[in-house]
Specification:
alpha/beta; Immunoglobulin-like; 2 domains; 8-stranded parallel beta barrel; 7-stranded antiparallel β-sheet; 11 helices; binds alpha-L-arabinofuranose; hydrolase; ASD1_cat; glycosidase
């Protein structure tokens, strides 16, 4: 039987704004060095930024860019990353057992965003691992104070006359995780986050602050951590963070394809925890979510590799976490985007982790080309067509059995209406590995009259990937036979496919 749902603009979830299409640049492996920044590359501009990579990032449609970590930020000394490059110190990066040269720093990050264009917004993470309130205030002053104080004048002397105007700040990173430098208990972190937030607001009441939530839903402290942190910071912060990574384990592809079930539950559980604290405080304020790290990541492989690394070796910009994504990974990534859109009422910020080389939609070779991974396509299409009013989609779909999540609908879908043109885009994943899925969508009260396009990402080989040798092996293709007649959209979704159906 077909999978079905109804679309009606009277029933919406919320607004999908640009910040849902953020990404993450960490000083990790080759994300920055030889990813974004490679002064010797033939395509480098005067600032050492790779123009081929800049063009791909623009095409990807990335908006907010979180920086500089990640685990890296918990040992970060912002002062090392400013001023004349030749005087910047080399430091040990404990998080990734690397040597950080600081050739790319704060000023370079802001210049990189400027080159990307006005849609690129900074999201600066603070070190609350080894540092605290004083250093956060100093960085805020260096970055945002116009002039006339020691720190703002230092920025000006370093060549940046205009303040950076960084509005969005993360109060640390994954401090619930024992792997984090400066790991804390929920109570310790809550106190530090509250003190830092209060002080930063004294300097500038308009800052937007993200408190650290759990580094995954499977953390033993999940929900209790959020409750403890928010009980102390509720009135001082705007968002709480979520991080989630998914991978296929033990050949269980059916469960992997249903990863968004976990992501949606994570979002719903976090919302419930936030609102529980809001209720306890009798507050009208609603905390929103910053899903500031999400992706497919073959983390178990990375852990195996790290376990065999030479402990005496502190390489510069090593090849770390350079996952090469398959068609299956791209379908899952599309489904994770659907999960975010389906919760656009509470997810205010989302950052794909990461942007270049490190678990990224873009790969590069030092001195060589840059190319799009399979996962590039669902992200770029959703950023392009997925902004506007998210319509409430209640799916009636055949199901399949998964080991991890029980019976799961074969169809995962959402739809977004552009309020200006009235155009509607349906984003849909068929989780079946072997059968096509007929889809019927009843349209009520929408202005659309025709199918403007149906693009699919699917392949006879679900393991197909884009590589240096074959960078365009996997690209989306147009699907014929999709119709809109008598108020019903009919389509066939190929097995294991990501679909974008545009109605105009
Ligand atoms: O994105 C890679 C790492 O994943 C980040 O540094 C950390 O925050 C998370 O555990």
């Amino acid at each position: 039987r077909p999978a079905r749902f109804t679309l009606d603009p009277a029933f919406t979830v919320g607004e999908a704004g640009p910040r849902l299409f953020g990404a993450f640049v960490e000083h990790l492996g080759r994300c920055v060095y030889t990813g974004i920044h490679e002064p010797d590359h033939p395509a480098a501009d005067e600032a050492g930024l790779r123009t081929d990579v800049l063009a791909l990032i623009r095409e990807l449609g990335v908006t907010t860019i979180r920086y500089p970590g990640g685990n890296f930020v918990s040992g970060y000394k912002w002062e090392d990353s400013v001023g004349p490059v030749e005087r910047r110190p080399r430091r040990l990066d404990l998080a990734w057992r690397s040597t950080e040269t600081n050739r790319f720093g704060l000023s370079e990050y802001l210049a990189f965003l400027k080159k990307l264009g006005p849609q690129a917004e900074p999201m600066m993470a603070l070190n609350l691992g080894t540092r605290g309130v004083a250093e956060a205030l100093e960085l805020q002053e260096y970055a945002n104070h116009p002039a006339g104080t020691e720190l703002s004048e230092r920025r000006i002397a370093h060549g940046d006359k205009d303040p950076y105007g960084i509005r969005l700040w993360c109060l640390g990173n994954e401090l619930d995780g024992p792997w984090q430098t400066g790991h804390k208990t929920a109570g310790e972190y809550a106190r530090l986050a509250a003190e830092t937030a209060r002080a930063m607001r004294q300097a500038d009441p308009s800052v937007e602050l993200v408190a650290c939530g759990s580094s995954s839903r499977s953390m033993p402290t999940f929900a209790e951590w959020e409750a403890t942190v928010l009980a102390e910071t509720y009135d001082l912060v705007d968002h709480i963070s979520l991080h989630a990574y998914y991978e296929e384990l033990d050949g269980d592809r059916d469960s992997f394809l249903a990863s968004a079930v976990d992501m949606e539950s994570f979002i719903e559980d976090t919302v419930a925890t936030c609102d529980h604290i809001g209720a306890r405080l009798k507050s009208k304020k609603r905390i929103t979510l910053s899903f500031d790290e999400w992706n497919v990541w073959y983390m178990s492989r990375a852990q195996r590799e790290a376990a065999t690394a030479d402990p005496a070796d502190w390489p510069e910009a090593p090849r770390l976490l350079e996952d090469n994504y398959s068609v299956t990974d791209a379908v899952v990534l599309g489904s994770l985007l659907i999960a975010l859109l389906r919760h656009a009422d509470r997810v205010a910020v989302a950052c794909l982790a990461q942007l270049v080389n490190v678990i990224a939609p873009i790969l590069t070779e030092p001195g060589g080309p840059a190319w799009r991974q399979t996962t590039f396509h669902p992200f770029a299409q959703t950023s392009r067509y997925g902004r506007g009013q998210v319509l409430d989609v209640r799916v009636d779909s055949p199901t399949y059995a998964t080991a991890k999540y029980g019976e799961v609908p074969l169809l995962h879908a959402t739809a977004v209406r552009d309020p200006e043109s009235g155009a509607v885009t349906v984003f849909a994943v068929n989780r079946s590995q072997d059968a096509a899925l007929p889809l019927e969508v009843a349209l009520h009260g929408l202005e659309v009259t025709q199918v403007a396009g149906h693009s699919a990402l699917a392949d006879a080989d679900p393991e197909a990937r884009n590589t240096l040798a074959a960078p365009e092996r996997v690209v989306p293709h147009e699907v014929s036979g999709t119709t809109l007649q008598g108020g019903t959209l009919r389509a066939t979704l190929e097995p294991l496919s990501w679909n974008v159906i545009r109605l105009a």
